[in-house]
Amino acid sequence: MTEPTTIVHMLRHGEVYNPEKVLYGRLPGYRLSELGVQMAKAAAESLAGHDVTYLVASPLERAQQTAEPFAAEFKLPIAVDERLIESANVFEGKRVSVGDGALRDPRNWWALRNPITPSWGEPYQQIALRMYAALESARERAEGHEAVCVSHQLPIWMLRCYAEHRRLFHDPRRRQCALASITSFHFEGTKITGIGYAEPAAHLISLSATARTAKGA
Questions:
Q1: 141 Cβ partners below 8 Å, 6+ apart?
Q2: Distance (Å, rounded) from C-alpha 47 to C-alpha 86?
């Protein structure tokens, strides 16, 4: 008997309104910018006509907002999965870009001692395992159809690296996970047979302050 074909789309949220330019992580109150709302709509439009039967998102506001046009497009409720949440980070609420001084401050060096785990936040392995569990859950809920899961850059990238049997330690500048991008996991039964990637909001990313300053999460 032929095993069911299922696709789980992992969607990164759109641009966030972040005038303070901090690493917002899991902090509450960070919502999409006007451009971010457009990005979410562009991502939803890119899947119009697809067989999406399950929609789930991280509990954070920006992910919930990004899911809204999908809920409208596919007439689905937005489920919540805590496993899709952003990774924890000790620099939450701080400015940590090059030139901001946080990485040169000796008080922060203990948190930077081990980039492999990493020492400044949730271990990469832990992120990958919880995201894989969320992926499996979505596959089961949408078996034979398609699911959309709204999450965050690092968790999606860790999931992809884990699924492709790549090392989890990486250069953040090399993540292939742009704003409102879609990383699609194709299944035959329970086996991943392919991973696709698309940037339906690419025409908006060049306008994004988040993309220019690498603040997105």
A1: 53, 54, 56, 147
A2: 24
